[in-house]
Amino acid sequence: MFCSKKKPLEVKRIVKANDREYNEKFQYADNRIHTSKYNILTFLPINLFEQFQRVANAYFLFLLILQLIPEISSLTWFTTIVPLVLVITMTAVKDATDDYFRYKSDKQVNNRQSEVLIDSKLQIEKWMNVKVGDIIKLENNQFVAADLLLLSSSEPYGLCYIETAELDGETNLKVRHALSVTSELGEDIRRLANFDGPDTKLMQNSGKTKFKRTSIDRLMNTLVLWIFGFLICLGIILAIGNSIWENQVGTQFRSFLFWNKEEKNLVFSGFLTFWSYIIILNTVVPISLYVSVEVIRLGHSYFINWDQKMYYSQKATPAAARTTTLNEELGQIEYVFSDKTGTLTQNIMTFKKCSINGRIYGEEHDDLGQKTDITKKKKPVDFSVNPQVDKTFQFFDHSLMESIKLGDSKVHEFLRLLALCHTVMSEENSAGQLIYQVQSPDEGALVTAARNFGFIFKSRTPETITIEELGTLVTYQLLAFLDFNNVRKRMSVIVRNPEGQIKLYSKGADTILFEKLHLSNEDLLALTSDHISEFAGEGLRTLAIAYRDLDDKYFNEWNKMLEDANAATDEREERIAGLYEEIERDLMLLGATAVEDKLQEGVIETVLSLSLANIKIWVLTGDKQETAINIGYACNMLTDDMNEVFIIAGNTAMEVREELRKAKENLFGQNRSSSNGHIVPEKKQQLELDSIVEETVTGDYALVINGHSLAHALESDVKNDLLELACLCKTVVCCRVTPLQKAQVVELVKKHRNAVTLAIGDGANDVSMIKCAHIGIGISGQEGLQAVLASDYSFAQFRYLQRLLLVHGRWSYFRMCKFLCYFFYKNFAFTLVHFWFGFFCGFSAQTVYDQWFITLFNIVYTSLPVLAMGIFDQDVSDRNSMDFPQLYKPGQLNLLFNKRRFFICMAHGIYTSLALFFIPYGAFYRDTGEDGQHVADYQSFAVTMATSLVIVVSVQIALDTSYWTVINHVFIWGSVATYFSILFTMHSNVMFGVFPNQFPFVGNARNSLTQKCIWLVILLTTVVSVMPVLAFRFLKVDLFPTLSDQIRQRQKAQRKARPLHSRRPQTRRSSSRRSGYAFAHQEGYGELITSGKNMRAKNPPPTSGLEKTLSNSTSWIENFCKKTTDTMSSFNQNKTVKL
């Protein structure tokens, strides 16, 4: 993996169809998909390399080597190697498990099957065995195995309709054309594999899997380095002390002991003492810290997996933590980068309302004529009399059906237009049901609405359109099709009805179509315009609907000019556009449609809640600008209350730079006039790019930028301007962006803002940004699994992001910070006692506690209580975490654990270590026990300090625990009981009899702990250690309570009284903004329809060609081989195809 060579850029690719032997000499990649990081051979070296990137692991390996030197170590080697091996093994097992699940997902994809032509026979092959140049047979609704070239199709003229949901989340169909020389090979879809496996567009856009670490991981690495430096300082102090002691006292002490050995070298003695104390004091950062961190993260991951409130019952999809190392980072997110289609929206268009001849249909009114909301109790319109009804369609305003029954001519003409003016293709399935194949989901919604109201589009040919009008079959002659494009923003059809009348039907963006209306429409125009504004205010996608009556003479003259323009070689497009403009005038307005690009449930509430949590949401989408802006307003990311929405659409770097400059001048100009020069900084300086500038901006702004402009803006000399402007805006929308640009935007913010980023998407085009962001989330919807496979977390609905961040993320960060603060505190308190003892033991590297206590302190006596706090603790409930998003801000500002908090914990630990050592030392100094014997012996002193330490740290964690469970009680008080059980056992006669060398101090614990003075010393030590902290916290909560403190007090009051449930504010938009026009299909469908290339032959069979399965594959193969021989003769002699 690390030694692989970089693949050279491929300029051209030579492929011979159905010739594996020839293609293999080019060494093209196979079709196997790899998203896992390891294999059996590389797991051990790569995983060990990754683990020893942690400074602490390398540090403990170094200590282990030192402990193997007997002249240095006063502790046995197993006290370090056992925990180190345990940590590395647990982490390796966890990493292997995570990667195994990725491997299983890869295997599932690789083992999908396709029919491949091998040796003139169709054979079933797994995807991973498909080779470049293979010819593949595909049937309807099959997955595509690789990047393919279409050779032929059952559709006329070699057309093929594909869905790219796994790539971009779009469920609307795209059209692909077969090569003209191969399009007549047969009736089934056949494709030639061009790019396999890692060479496919999907995998090329996926980006490289990165090893992600949290900010706390990186901080812990820094702190370990600092602690190591601190240990070196302590070791130097004690080594110097040893040299001085040996010089001044050691000589006389050796004479006292009759030690006649040669005099020790003072420098060498200090050198050995230095390393001895490094080993003794290494427990400041014990290896159990990393074991505990991994266990806590694993527990948090299971809480996410088990959360019933993030379970999507409709598809039986639970939330899944696909990694266990990033949970606390979920509580520190500042920027969310979201895809649109399939992530914010369901990509399901629904016909909601319409305005016909000045009257709105689709609203509900009460008895007083006031508009009311439609509820689930409201009975929808009954369409059962229509045998061709789409049963999924619902409409609640019965007045529209009444107008149809009464024969309202305007309503009939409105619905007739919807049934005629579109690019939809129809077919019947095996059950005889009418099926629409739509290239634009907007058109599908309009044609379906007309179908349910009795105007059913049945079929089309290049010259005719057949519809069923209220039970009567009517065929219209299609005279012209005026296609949609991004400039015209409308489409029209010209038809002749059975009565011989020529009509032009048009639909398009209201801003364009209203300019084409006849002057007699002035009153209706004003009324319809108000209706459209009302629809847009509700976040609906709107289209204006109009028609024009044409006489034969005028149309024939116009059509002759159109034929001449189509045949022209110069300025053809301009002449055609001019003719379209000429005939699309003096239109008569019929009304407008309102289609809902249905948002996923809870999107608006989620966006609002995340905004209150100071999380900025950027939308990165491949959709058009109008569509993206419309969704922005629908989600409340964009509002009419914003000071301004900046749109960057420059085509060159200079234009983009100028537009960014003008936007910043406009922004700062408005704020200078509104703020009067006053600056009020709020955010912490370490998280700001330019805090003064950012806090100067007082209004709400939004930025919209296109993909071509973004390409220039991401250049090195412009990107800082883009970033500065974007970060000053409340919302950023990037439209028409490529997968690579999505990743570049994420990387720009991630690198230059020093902020924690999250990317969320549902399609393969989101994989790059998911891998690039600190946290990647995949939506496991109907659009495939590529985003999920590359993600760190996955769930089924965007709304679950709110609970993931505000509850699980905030709790994980809160718990991890409390865990680390307590862990460093208790280990400083535990370890630094050795430092103070060094001044009273001749700096001899003698430990205060016995060896077994040192070994068991972090593994047994204090491990479970801190784990319980790190896994279960919570400051406020999940409901309050959701209701008060402002609680999330401390994580963004990194307030709960940072370098300052570390030094506070360190000072607290030092203070406790002083109390633990000097209070017993002073109390025992020249003191006697109740039996008249001295209590100042070494083991009694050690037992007293060890007991005081266990009780102090247990009381301290009890004070730190905010949320008590049975597990907390059992672990805390059970650990104290375990300490006393092990203590009395180790000092018993039984243990001495079995292991006399290991447990020589028989009865010491019983003798010491039966004396009242010992317990008074322990009580005094506990009070002195805990009371200052208790007093400080009481005063802080009483005088300077945080929001968390206030809510916790509120929770306590609610437990005593009946719980109060606050109602969420209504988030329904009320806006005057005009929505984007509801077109999403590509230009060129009009020409495709009128050419007849997508039409079937007359009298087609009831089932589509895509759904048929050939009963005799041999005839197809024979036909293919014959056609191939004829076709290939036209190519060069080596029969290669250059693609």
From TrEMBL:
Superkingdom to which the source organism belongs? Eukaryota
> In this protein, which residues make up the domain named P-type ATPase N-terminal?
15-81
Co-factor(s): Mg(2+)
Kindly give the Pfam families that the UniProt entry links to this protein: Cation_ATPase, PhoLip_ATPase_C, PhoLip_ATPase_N
* Span of domain P-type ATPase C-terminal: 788-1042
**Transmembrane segments annotated in the record for this chain:** 223-245, 265-291, 819-840, 852-872, 902-921, 941-959, 971-994, 1014-1035
Specify the protein name.
Phospholipid-transporting ATPase
Which Gene3D superfamilies does the protein's record reference?
Calcium-transporting ATPase, cytoplasmic domain N, Calcium-transporting ATPase, cytoplasmic transduction domain A, HAD superfamily/HAD-like
Renumbered to this chain, the Basic residues biased-composition regions fall at 1051-1072
Report the catalytic activity: ATP + H2O + phospholipidSide 1 = ADP + phosphate + phospholipidSide 2
Q: Which organism is it from?
A: Pipistrellus nathusii
SUPFAM superfamilies (UniProt xref): Calcium ATPase, transduction domain A, Calcium ATPase, transmembrane domain M, HAD-like, Metal cation-transporting ATPase, ATP-binding domain N
> Segment Disordered: which positions?
1051-1078, 1090-1111
